[in-house]
Amino acid sequence: MLAQQVVNAISLGGVYALFALGFTLVFGVLNVVNLAHGAIFMVGAYAALQSVVHWHLPLSAAILVAMLVAGVVGWLLDRMILAPLRARKAPHLAPMIATIGLAIVLTSLVEGFHGPQNLRFPAEVLPTQGLRFGAVQITWLEVRIILLALMLMGALLWGINRTRFGRALRGVAESPKAAALLGINVEGLLHATSMIAAVLGGVAGVLIALYSNALFPHMGQAMLHKGIAVVILGGMGDIRGALVGGFFLGFAEVFSVAYVGSTMRDAVAFGLLFTILLLRPEGLFGKAAQRRA
Amino acid sequence: MRAWLFILSIALVATHSATNAIAQIKIGVAEALTGNASQYGTPIRKAFELAVGEINGGGGINGNKIELVIEDEQGKKEEAINVFKKLIFQDKVLMLFGPTLSNSAQASDPVAQSAKIVVFGTSNTADGITSIGNYVFRNSVTEADILPVTLKVASQKTGLKNVAVLYGNDDIFTKSGYDNFAKALQTLKIPVTTTESFAKGDVDFKPQLTKIKAGNPDAIVLSALVAEGGPIMVQARQLGITLPFIGGNGMNSPRVFELAKDNSDNLWVGSPWSVENPAAENKRFIAAYQKGHGALPDQFAAQAYDAMYMVAQAFRKIKLTGKLEADRKALRDALPATQFTGATGPFKFRQVTGRDGKPAGYDAVQTAIVMMTKGNQYVIQK
């Protein structure tokens, strides 16, 4: 049972981490708590469902469509909502409230088109073969979910630490003004960041929908709460923090079910989180206030 | 289509008022015809109209015709009370059908009780409705009656020795389903390996299922709505758990076959009614309903249809005096003895005790039909 629960925790933690990455990225670079990230996550899942059911695309292509759709939403979010607020020097809370509005709009749209009931990916498109290692049962689907999540995380870390784009990003996170003086296109970079974050969120949406066999318009809500917890645990705006925090929450949830009791699932997971924050208020990787991303 | 239905309903209303002159048996119907609960209330109304059409067409009741006074209670408590008062005091009906939801019944049935008029619920399954008083009747079978039967049949057929339990702990329906299952497991002396829960809106059930698997039970008792129950079945099969699932009424829905397509086999559920039941009365009902409404009936329609025939049977036994109070009481006194075999099978009433310990209203005594899923459909288990 232990080995199987570890596999469960890794799959779940991977999706949490992927979701939290986008969330923390927007906070770190744009300094905005993006409460529409859960809705973007949901939109990604529905975009993939739409491609599979109505356009008969294979699953891998559907994931690309989901990335594209979520990415466009993320780009528009910054271009149409956050950028104008920045230009007007809106107070701190305004962008956050605006993202709540976007979340409501996206959720209502999807509810209007697809209805409020649960949907799932058609059974035919899912790989069904399983792998067995002793007592551990894992499907190809889960293997791919874990691999894809790890790949995307790797790509993001590499992009931020090793590329010109990443350097510029870190520069903007540090000080947008200084970055602009150095000739960095700050606005463009912020659009791009919001887009990349949304792409990650959208993929996370598809993966959780595949993993759990369920899509519904409010699926982003619970995820958003968990995502916020993960990001706070890891340290607001810190990439490694989101990674570690995501897996931490996955393991905490799974093992509280395994060894404490399923009624206590969220109580144990969030209780642990609370305790850690009491000991380290800045989060696991948070440095006292400044330096982000 | 809408417009056509609208015209038809106007025509129906028109014919109703035209027959006013000769109608002598006025029955009030208070169901949720708009709003969320109208998905249950609408088939109920259609089934009432179907049954009344048949009864009146066959000569009525001792020469008298039934007239329905239909009101929309919108699935809301306050509205149910208003509509009940209107039907009782203004329309002066002889008895009432409805309301659609148990929640509303808790609020509105006391109105009928204190006015001493029969209120007959065809879709209220919550505990305690009929303990409101001796004018409260229902033919909707509760989960408390069905789950023990489901469990018993499933345990006989599969030879299970112990079970694991999984239930939604933050929903009143799945939680009370769990309570009833727990009681039945105790009565049948079936040991429980582990009891796990989940919350509404959860999507990941693998930790619970992994734990259940480790306990090595013979079956999984599941009190869940289909939104969670579907993914639970799929995730269980992904983990290599091939055990039978024993579900409550929440899992008795064709939506199982969408949400758990190809992973839905070996799910046991009980129901007072099944579209697959080949009994002659049921086949006749299904055919008539389909002919009238172009769609298959559901469990609520079947229960409403039978209820109207039960009431008709009771009316046949009494002599109407034209005095409202006397006739209402005569019906109450005649109704408990009703025995009827309809779309939902053989039926009779059982008196329950009220909160004060005195005899109160009447619940259904009916055998549940136990079904098992196979190849994405329900198969009746004899």
In short:
With 293 residues, chain A is an all-alpha fold. Chain A is 74% helix and 3% strand.
Could you describe the 3D structure shown?
The complex is a heterodimer of chains A (293) and B (382). Chain A has a single domain (2-279), classed as ABC transporter involved in vitamin B12 uptake, BtuC. Chain A contains eleven helices and two strands, in the order ααααββααααααα. Chain A is mainly α and 293 residues long. Chain A is globular, with a radius of gyration of 19 Å. A two-stranded antiparallel sheet of chain A has the order 1-2. Chain B is α/β, with parallel strands linked by helices. Chain B folds into two domains: 2-141 and 278-365, Rossmann fold, CATH 3.40.50; 144-271, Rossmann fold. In chain B, 44% of the residues lie in helices and 22% in strands. Chain B has helices at 2-18, 38-57, 77-90, 102-115, 143-158, 172-187, 206-214, 226-238, 256-259, 280-293, 299-317, 324-334; strands at residues 23-31, 65-72, 95-97, 118-121, 136-138, 163-168, 192-198, 219-223, 245-247, 267-271, 339-342, 345-353, 359-365, 369-374, 377-381. A seven-stranded mixed beta sheet of chain B has the order 7-6-8-9-10-14-15, with helices on both faces. A five-stranded parallel beta sheet of chain B has the order 2-1-3-4-5, with helices on both faces. In chain B, strands 11-12-13 form a three-stranded antiparallel beta sheet. In chain B, α2 runs parallel beside α11 (299-317). Classes of the chains: A mainly alpha (293), B alpha/beta (382).
With strands numbered from the N-terminus, the spatial order across the biggest sheet of chain A is 1-2
In CATH, the homologous superfamily of the largest domain in chain B goes by the name: Response regulator
The structural class of chain B is alpha/beta
Helix content of chain A: over 70%
Instruction: Indicate the low-confidence ranges of chain A by residue numbers.
Output: none
Strand content of chain B: 15-25%
Helix content of chain B: 40-55%
H/I helix tally of chain B: 12
Instruction: Kindly report how far apart the N and C termini of chain A lie.
Output: 38 Å
Which blocks of ≥5 consecutive residues of chain B have pLDDT under 50? 17-21
Q: Can you name the CATH architecture of chain A?
A: Orthogonal Bundle
Rg of chain A, Cα atoms, Å = 19 Å
**Radius of gyration of chain B, taken over Cα atoms and rounded to an integer in Å:** 22 Å
Characterize the largest beta sheet of chain B: strand count, sense, and whether it forms a barrel.
7 strands, mixed
Order of helices and strands of chain B: HEHEHEHEEHEHEHEHEHEHHHEEEEE
Number of domains of chain A: 1
- The N- to C-terminal Cα distance of chain B equals 41 Å
CATH topology of chain A: ABC transporter involved in vitamin B12 uptake, BtuC
